[in-house]
Amino acid sequence: MAISLENLEQRITKLELFVYEIIGKKFDEIDKRLEYIDKRLSNLYEKTESDKTEINKNIGLTKTELYEKIESVKTELYEKIEATKTELYKEIETVKADLYEKIESVKTELYEKIEATKTELYEKIETTKTELYKEIETVKTEIYEKMENLRVNLIKWMVGLFIAFATLIITAIWAILSFALK
């Protein structure tokens, strides 16, 4: 029973469509994974931005509170000086000096806390960024390896198919020639 060339072409066409469908599904899976990674990166970026905004807001509030406290203390000092100018002049000067020292120490302490928080945030951002880059590289490597394996398997399959068809054609020609020689 001989298989016609049209039947063989139809089978090859069906096999090609099947292979293209499998490859298409694999690429869809890869696209979904890349979209997931992109969403995770976007979420991390948004969280970092919101944390940064919150820190800036807190710094602004603390600064305003300090200025308000300084202004209120300054006003109190001027009122006391005017009320008891001659009697308490030396005492007011020492209190004033103490207040400036306290303000400077609080200011220095706040600057140190802000710098420590800023440094800590930079370190966290850098470690998170490094971890994400490593994870992206790992996923990318896995995808490339899977694509390479798929490509190698597809080539092996196509070579096997070609050899099978070549064997089939040789067998058919041999059968025709042996029948014709009889």
UniProtKB/TrEMBL annotation:
<keyword id="KW-0472">Membrane</keyword>
<keyword id="KW-0175">Coiled coil</keyword>
<keyword id="KW-1133">Transmembrane helix</keyword>
<protein>
    <submittedName>
        <fullName>Uncharacterized protein</fullName>
    </submittedName>
</protein>
<feature type="coiled-coil region">
    <location>
        <begin position="67"/>
        <end position="142"/>
    </location>
</feature>
<feature type="transmembrane region" description="Helical">
    <location>
        <begin position="154"/>
        <end position="177"/>
    </location>
</feature>
<keyword id="KW-0812">Transmembrane</keyword>
